[in-house]
Amino acid sequence: MSNNISPVLHLSTREMHLKRKAMWDASMKNHGAYMDPETHLFSEAHLERRACPACGSGDHSFLFHKSGGSYVICKQCKMVYLNPVFKDDVLENYYRNNHTLQGETVAADIEFYAKLYRQGLSSIEQHIGSAGRILDVGCSTGNFLDIAKSADWQCHGLELNQTEAKLAKAKGHNIQENLLSRADFAEKFDAITLWDVFEHIKDGHAFLKEARKSLRPSGVIFVQSPSRDALAARILQAQCNMFDGLEHVNLYGMESLTQLCNRAGYTIVSYETVISEIGVINNHLEYEDPYLGFSKNAKSLFGMIDEAWIHERKIGYKFQACLQAR
Ligand SMILES: [Zn+2]
């Protein structure tokens, strides 16, 4: 297991989320084009139904609507996922054409993200031994690759969005504007990373099977993704911003990730959580907007639950997991 270095929150919860609001607003604006103006849900023409992407069960219950989408929970593995969900071609077209501001948001708050990147990289290095070849899937403008490169990794990236890929290439990274299944690499990788990307991939099982072909035998797949187990998600439910209705198609937790890995032939070799969201939860508990409220307390809930308590129980906002093929 990796050492649990908690990122220090330098900005107040409100300041941080005000910075991120531009990204959220841009994303919500993009949803409008796909919505039925009468129901405020996504139009049927863009959608398809599916079974649980983690365990394959068709047995689920409706949870809530969010920004045009519908989230359900799997009765078998408790996975939370969008159902119906955008068809593959609609989703790919959406990503190619809608620049998400993800790269700019990270760049504006690089200190916060850099700590998460270093924590993940240290976890990968514990399994690999030393720096080698790394592929960042959905690398955006290359902010993680910048850090991996400075730690002597040979860096490659995949990014569908043309604007973001161009910015990453301008920094000197090797970027292909393609999906992993269509990319072409001369050699296999010691690590394949997915930073806030795995929740966007509809078929995680197919992805893991495909990724194995590009991974060296002792290689690691690293995933950082919002966790449906998070205390913030379970308290805020539909109000929690991990549920965006369109892009976050799959919200795994420890149980559903384990099921998925068992089916795809992987072992979870480390699993930590990061980001407590105590400030967000306190805003909510004070009847304020969870993200833009004025609660000053980002340290503890009722003086009883602190960041360490949350991460010991693996109920932080995102998980960082390393997977190895069996
Ligand atoms: Zn399931």
Features:
single chain; 326 residues; alpha/beta; Rossmann fold; 7-stranded mixed β-sheet; 4-stranded antiparallel β-sheet; 23% strand; globular; binds zinc ion
Gist of the model:
This protein has 326 residues and is an alpha/beta fold. The protein has helices at 13-32, 88-97, 102-108, 110-128, 143-150, 162-170, 204-213, 231-236, 254-264, 278-285, 307-312; strands at residues 47-48, 60-66, 69-74, 80-82, 85-86, 133-137, 154-158, 174-176, 189-195, 215-226, 250-251, 266-274, 300-301, 305-306, 318-325.
Give the biggest sheet. 7 strands, mixed
Please give the share of residues in helix: 25-40%
Order of helices and strands: HEEEEEHHHEHEHEEHEHEHEHEEHE
- Please tell me the overall pLDDT: 92
Q: What would CATH call the architecture of the domain at 109-325?
A: 3-Layer(aba) Sandwich
User: CATH topology of the domain at 109-325, what is it called?
Assistant: Rossmann fold
- Ligand identities: zinc ion
Structural class: alpha/beta
Compute the number of strand runs.
15
CATH superfamily of the domain at 109-325: Vaccinia Virus protein VP39
Give the strand line-up of the largest sheet. 8-7-6-9-10-15-12
Contiguous uncertain segments of 5+ residues = 1-10
Distance between the termini: 18 Å
CA-based shape: globular
